[in-house]
Amino acid sequence: MQQPGTTTTLSKEMQDCVDACMSCHSICEESMSSCLQMGGQAQMQIMRALMDCTEITRICADMMMRRSPMAAEMCRMCARACDMCAEACMGMPEDPLMMRCAESCRRCAEMCRTMAGAAA
Amino acid sequence: MQQPGTTTTLSKEMQDCVDACMSCHSICEESMSSCLQMGGQAQMQIMRALMDCTEITRICADMMMRRSPMAAEMCRMCARACDMCAEACMGMPEDPLMMRCAESCRRCAEMCRTMAGAAA
Amino acid sequence: MQQPGTTTTLSKEMQDCVDACMSCHSICEESMSSCLQMGGQAQMQIMRALMDCTEITRICADMMMRRSPMAAEMCRMCARACDMCAEACMGMPEDPLMMRCAESCRRCAEMCRTMAGAAA
Amino acid sequence: MQQPGTTTTLSKEMQDCVDACMSCHSICEESMSSCLQMGGQAQMQIMRALMDCTEITRICADMMMRRSPMAAEMCRMCARACDMCAEACMGMPEDPLMMRCAESCRRCAEMCRTMAGAAA
Fold first, then answer.
1. Which of A45, B12, B107, D79 lies 20 to 30 A from B19 at CA?
2. How many Cβ atoms sit within 10 Å of the Cβ of residue A104?
3. Could you list the residue ranges forming a coiled coil in this record (chains A, B, C, D) (predicted)?
4. Do D67 and C33 touch (CB under 8 A)?
5. CA–CA separation, C28 vs A37, rounded Å?
């Protein structure tokens, strides 16, 4: 039997990637709330990207934290969801929240791609 | 139409509660991974509490972030899930991870109870 | 040790409640997609109710299926989320999908209330 | 503006794939509960596969239902999660629930692969 607690430390790189996913998830949730309050057609297009991105960043962080054998593959998919969401958010350059969301998505995409490559 | 980004700032108290929920969610995911590696009967009992707690802290944070009208009610339920999980983790006092998990659950329970009361 | 598979059968009532939650979850997902395509202000208000309802019906079904000790409490909360979502959907009586969604929410609310009472 | 409800019907193939994902999700939740009750080392290995499979089948069904542009990609990933879970369940041939779970995973994997190919 495993010693209690011995294998629970994530590598620095993976912990940073988890943090990036969770930050991105959080700002996507806030952005969804903001889009719903504004309620225009442009916002609805962004909502679709946000809904995918918020779910996939969340599941990606969870899979890394529980050392899923599919975590690297989910990181690859998460990077693409973040790319799409960043692009959608860039369609509203006048909205500071969307700009912060795009930035968080891009950072998360980059870290997930590195993680996917490192684990492959 | 709402000005872009104007209503997106959470109160300090709510942001702290969101952070406590997300920290608790993270450590629950790590604790689940550890329990699965150890694999004893005691761990399996803790797993059930961890599975509820990790899901409910996550949905509770998300509902606060998107200003759900049911957020206060979910905070009340989250506090109970955290109480049960803390108690389960206390059954393994020799495991430092479980002790950290119990502590995180207790802190989250306290903040969720405050938030539920404040919003009620 | 438990015999394999011996305790895995849900009661008829609980299975029916799980099915009602999953049906409600499915139609909420479809309704969200429809609201995003239509994109008006009324739809955005409904979206908030749909987002809560789809998540809570899902987690409620999962908690019943895995025999969570908090399943009854989640059923109570699920009933309220379904009530709110049904009311929101009723705001669009000209949309057949929203009418079907409201009906599914009402049925799920009723079954969850029964289940919460039965388990309490 | 879109006519209410006009675009909400999924193709027969996609609806069948959604149903397969949701069935697989349900039986994975039941299997997790059973594994936790039995609590042996073999069960713990299966738990990891079940946890990935139950989350990915759920998100895959949701993404199809809300017409996510990433649904095909998630179907591909879901097929692999189901393959891994079926293989894990096959390690307990004496447990009827695990055998039904493996069968549900295989069927879901097949339908997701078809769906991923059809949408590509």
1. A45
2. 25
3. none
4. yes
5. 20
CATH architecture of A12-29+41-119: Up-down Bundle (1.20)
Q: Which pLDDT score, from 0 to 100, does residue D8 have?
A: 53
Query: Does C41 sit within 8 Å of A47, measured CB to CB?
Result: no
Cβ–Cβ contact B81 with C under 8 A: yes
For C100, list phi and psi in degrees, rounded to 5: -65, -35
Predicted pLDDT of residue A4: 44
Neighbouring subunits of C (3+ Cβ pairs under 8 A)? A, B, D
Q: Measured between alpha carbons, how far is C14 from C31 in angstroms, rounded to an integer?
A: 25
pLDDT average, residue stretch A88-112: 96
**Domain ranges in chain C?**
12-29+41-119
Highest mean pLDDT among B11-15, B20-24, B64-68, D8-12 belongs to: B20-24
- Of B22, C90, B76, C51, give the one whose Cα is nearest residue A32: C51
Q: What does the pLDDT look like over A47-86, one tens digit per residue?
A: 999 999 999 999 999 999 988 999 999 999 999 999 999 9
Q: Are D3 and C34 in contact (CB under 8 A)?
A: no
Residue D42 pLDDT level (bands cut at 50, 70, 90) = confident
pLDDT in tens, C49-84: 999 999 999 999 999 998 899 999 999 999 999 999
Chain D residues 7-46 with CB within 8 Å of chain C = 7-8, 18, 22, 26, 29-34, 36-40
| Residues of chain A positioned with their CB less than 8 A from the CB of C39 | 39-41, 43-44
CB contact under 8 A, D70 and A52: yes
Identify the CA nearest to C97 among candidates C26, C6, C18, C17.
C26
Per-run averaged pLDDT (10 residues), chain C, 120 residues: 51 94 96 89 90 97 93 97 97 94 98 84
Q: Work out the mean pLDDT of chain B and round it to a whole number.
A: 90
ipTM over 0.90: no
Nearest to A77 among D62, D77, D84 (CB): D77
Contacts of B65 in chain A (CB under 8 A): 26, 29-30, 33
Q: What is the DSSP string of C12-43?
A: HHHHHHHHHHHHHHHHHHHHHHHHHHH--HHH
